[in-house]
Design goal:
Largest sheet: 3 strands, antiparallel
Helix content: 10-25%
Distance between the termini: 20 Å
Strand content: 25-35%
Order of helices and strands: EEEEEH
Length: about 60
């Protein structure tokens, strides 16, 4: 995975990654107010991290 957004130095902050499978991985705070299927999670990241990821992808 390659980190493309989120500039925190630790492992516990919002980040966005690209993978070698042409997909996006998002790390963020777990949202418990939304029910997701087993094996999946809903996470929240700041809008500016998402916008940084879009810029990194040339969008």
């Amino acid at each position: 995975m390659v980190q493309i957004a989120g500039d925190c130095k630790g492992d516990d902050c919002p980040k966005v990654f690209t993978t070698d499978r042409n997909s996006i991985v998002v790390q963020g705070d777990l949202v418990t107010s939304v029910t997701s299927p087993e094996g999946e999670a809903v996470v929240e990241i700041p809008r500016e991290v998402w916008e940084e990821a879009a810029r990194a992808l040339g969008r």
